[in-house]
Amino acid sequence: MSEDNSYSLFKSFAEPLFSPWLCDENFLQIDSEYAEWLPDVMKPGRYLQYVLAKQAVLLIKGDFIECGVYQGKSASIFSSILDKHDKYNKELFLIDSYEGLDSPTEEDKDIRTKKPFFTKGGVKGHDVNTIKNKLNKHRCSINFIKGWIPDTFENIKNKTFSFAHIDVDLYQSTYDSLFFVYPRMEKGGIILFDDYGFPMCTGARKAIDDFLLDKIEPLIPLPSGQALLIKSPC
């Protein structure tokens, strides 16, 4: 076999042919309703949100929580799943300042520029009323909790969760979110981190690593830039 043919054969094995986010009809129906919000390059990450949230609603007791709502795209996916499986009677808690990010710290320096990528009030998504209007078609119980992390968690300190999506970009907000969510996850509960692999989110990655130093669960970094943790049954 020639060198060119060997390379072509290797390349064919290295490139996946099956992309379920392109053919799962249930996901595509949900995704198409909000497709203009985010580019298709992010579709694999959205599909992962869909698959994991569906597993959480079917197999694990506890509610859903999202820390960092932005424009409500992920929240729309979670709401659609909770609608479809409403017999489980789970609630969705959406935690956000709805005023952009908190102040970055020294831990939040971009690994490329050695300066914080984010600024106070940056990455501001929709205001809370706009998000409510976008999600008002859903039947599931959606709780919009406006305020700064960690103070806003006081409102839901007695809740437990089957699924948590943490997408707050910065070190302190990520650490505080995990500090609150982790002990309230049910056994087998799923925590999906949105920011783990991105160079501008060094602080978020460090916060996750710091918090998990003495925990038994392995963190699973994903090619999408996300990371996954499943709460131990022990």
Report on the structure:
With 234 residues, the chain is of the alpha/beta class. The chain has one domain: 3-Layer(aba) Sandwich (Rossmann fold), CATH 3.40.50.150. 33% of the residues lie in helices and 16% in strands. Strands 3-2-1-4-5-7-6 form a seven-stranded mixed sheet, sandwiched between helices. Strand 1, helix 4 and strand 2 form a beta-alpha-beta unit. 38% of the residues are buried.
Attribute tags:
Rossmann fold, 33% helix, 7 strands, 234 residues, alpha/beta, seven-stranded mixed beta sheet
Ordered list of secondary-structure elements with their pairings:
Layout lengths: L2 H12 L10 H8 L10 H17 L3 E5 L5 H12 L6 E6 L31 H8 L5 E6 L14 E6 L4 H11 L3 E9 L8 H10 L8 E2 L5 E4 L4
Parallel strand pairs: 1-2, 1-4, 2-3, 4-5
Antiparallel strand pairs: 5-7, 6-7
Helix pairs in contact: 3-4, 6-7
Q: CATH-wise, what's the superfamily?
A: Vaccinia Virus protein VP39
* Rg (CA only): 19 Å
Main sheet characteristics: 7 strands, mixed
Q: Detail the poorly predicted runs.
A: none
Proportion of helical residues: 25-40%
Look at the structure and give the CATH class: Alpha Beta
Q: If you consult CATH, what is the topology? A: Rossmann fold
Shape: globular
Query: What is the distance, rounded to the nearest whole angstrom, between the alpha carbons of the first and last residues?
Result: 52 Å
